[in-house]
């Protein structure tokens, strides 16, 4: 039984940081809105209460006391002015110290609380079936401070409700105006904080068996430096293991070259000297095996050198012309092609690239060797170099027996040969070509030759200015 978790099941450091940064905001924004609401609403309501006190003070100035008796000489016009309001209904009532109505609305006077001279009281009540806000003032109208005239001014709650709504909206807007930038800043901060991790992840993700240099720990947050150091130690162990493997292959191939060379020379001499007819097939097989073993040892050395170059970030590329590389190697391949009964030709135009001359020479050598080995007697082999659409091309083409279409992909693998392949090859030639091409950022392709005859192998490099 296997369990496969989706991406959402993986813990997310970014999500954790955002949750812990934004969760307090979810709690603080309502609290902030409530605080702003309370701080702003109280002065607004106090201002409305002061408007009522102004009316009460004006009424207190109108009250007259004659012979110990309080009166309210208020004209109807003044009374209407006292009640005028665009939003709310306004009521007033004035009573003497005995509670008798001097003027205004009698039910309002009935709501008057006990008042001493100079005392103010503010309260909510219901008047004539309507909720109202009342300001009550004890005006001194007798010689006794405890006995005061009651002046009450009331208004309905329209302005107060409007003020509450306005303050609530202002508080919410203020809280949101504070919260939204904080949310944006939190997201920006988390993204900026995660950016070094993403860059480090990209660096680690770009590492391959050919590229195992350490990740720069100076570019990552302090909290993950230990993790990066552990990765770098792992990369170091992998480099050591790869180096040991390459060294083993190189040493083994190097040690095999001498006995194989001796065996090849001895087999050749044995064939050249007088011997019985029964021994000739054995000697020919011995000589072919020695040739193949020597070729295999050489190719293993090339593979070790190729992998070593890929793992060495300090390796410097050189600028060179593929046409000159091919021309300089022509003499080495003319004699083998003549012995194989083939026509080897060159069609060379300048094609400048950057790379390792030794490895590119091995690449060309493997292509020509494959063509000589597998094209067959009487075939034509052509080596071409040219530049086309910003790509420097190195092609080796023959008109020999070719490769079956279904084997075009498999022959790039190590130790894989076509079913119709002849010669003494080991199946490493094209694999080496592919590795060297990849090392140089080039692309190797294999296809049938002109009119479907033979094979054309081309390696396309990024062209450089000579």
Q: In terms of quaternary structure, what is this?
A: single chain
CATH C-level of the largest domain: Alpha Beta
Mean pLDDT: 80
Question: What is the succession of H and E elements?
Answer: HEEHEEHEEEHHHEHHEEHEEHEE
How many β-strand stretches? 14
User: CATH fold name of the largest domain, please?
Assistant: Beta-Lactamase
Written overview of the protein:
With 466 residues, this protein is α+β, with helices and mostly antiparallel strands. The protein folds into three domains: 16-165, Beta-Lactamase (2-Layer Sandwich), CATH 3.30.450; 216-315, Signal transduction histidine kinase, dimerisation/phosphotransfer (DHp) domain (Helix Hairpins, Orthogonal Bundle), CATH 1.10.287; 318-462, Histidine kinase-like ATPase, C-terminal domain (Heat Shock Protein 90), CATH 3.30.565. 51% of the residues lie in helices and 19% in strands. The protein contains ten helices and 14 strands. The chain has helices at residues 13-62, 76-83, 106-109, 158-205, 225-272, 280-310, 322-328, 330-339, 357-375, 429-439, and strands spanning 64-66, 69-71, 90-95, 101-104, 120-127, 130-140, 148-156, 318-321, 343-348, 352-355, 380-388, 391-398, 443-448, 455-462. The protein has a five-stranded antiparallel beta sheet with strand order 4-3-7-6-5. Helix 1 (13-62) packs antiparallel against helix 4 and helix 6 runs parallel beside helix 10 (429-439). The two termini are 60 Å apart. Residues 1-7 have low confidence and may be disordered.
């Amino acid at each position: 039984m296997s369990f496969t978790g989706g991406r959402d099941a993986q813990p997310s450091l970014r999500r954790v940081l955002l949750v812990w940064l934004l969760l307090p905001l979810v709690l603080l924004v309502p609290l902030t809105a409530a605080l702003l609401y309370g701080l702003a609403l109280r002065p607004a309501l106090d201002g409305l209460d002061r408007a009522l006190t102004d009316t009460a003070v004006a009424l207190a100035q109108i009250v007259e006391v004659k012979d110990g008796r309080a009166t309210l000489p208020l004209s109807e016009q003044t009374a209407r002015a006292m009640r005028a309001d665009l939003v709310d209904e306004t009521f007033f009532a004035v009573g003497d110290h005995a509670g008798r109505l001097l003027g205004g609305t009698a039910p309002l006077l009935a709501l008057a609380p006990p008042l001493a001279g100079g005392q103010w009281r503010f309260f909510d009540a219901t008047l004539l079936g309507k909720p109202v806000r009342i300001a009550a003032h004890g005006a001194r109208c007798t010689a006794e401070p405890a006995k005061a005239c009651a002046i009450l001014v009331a208004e309905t709650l329209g302005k107060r409700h409007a003020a509450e709504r306005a303050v609530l909206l202002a508080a919410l807007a203020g809280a949101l105006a504070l919260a939204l930038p904080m949310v944006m800043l939190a997201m920006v901060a988390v993204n900026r904080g995660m950016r070094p991790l993403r860059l480090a992840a990209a660096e680690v993700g770009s590492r391959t068996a050919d590229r195992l240099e350490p990740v720069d720990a100076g570019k990552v947050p302090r909290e993950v430096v230990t993790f990066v150091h552990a990765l770098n130690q792992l990369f170091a162990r992998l480099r050591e293991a790869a180096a040991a493997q390459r060294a083993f292959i190189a040493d083994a191939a190097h040690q095999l070259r001498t006995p194989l060379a001796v065996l090849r020379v001895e087999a050749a001499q044995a064939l050249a000297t007088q011997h019985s007819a029964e021994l000739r097939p054995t000697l020919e097989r011995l000589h072919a095996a020695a040739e193949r073993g020597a070729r295999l040892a050489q190719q293993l050395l090339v593979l070790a050198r190729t992998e070593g170059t890929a793992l060495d970030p300090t390796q410097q590329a050189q600028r060179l012309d593929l046409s000159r590389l091919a021309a300089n190697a022509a003499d080495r391949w003319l004699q083998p092609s003549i012995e194989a009964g083939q026509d080897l030709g060159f069609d060379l135009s300048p094609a400048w690239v950057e790379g390792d001359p030794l490895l590119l020479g091995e690449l060309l050598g493997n292509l020509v060797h494959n063509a000589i080995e597998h094209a067959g007697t009487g075939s034509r082999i052509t080596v071409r170099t040219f530049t086309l659409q910003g790509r420097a091309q190195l092609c080796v083409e023959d008109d020999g027996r070719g490769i079956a279409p279904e084997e075009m992909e498999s022959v790039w693998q190590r130790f894989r040969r076509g079913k119709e392949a002849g010669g003494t090859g080991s199946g490493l030639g094209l694999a080496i070509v592919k590795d060297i091409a990849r090392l140089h950022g080039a692309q190797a392709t294999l296809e049938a030759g002109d009119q479907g005859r033979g094979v054309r192998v081309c390696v396309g490099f990024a062209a450089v200015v000579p």
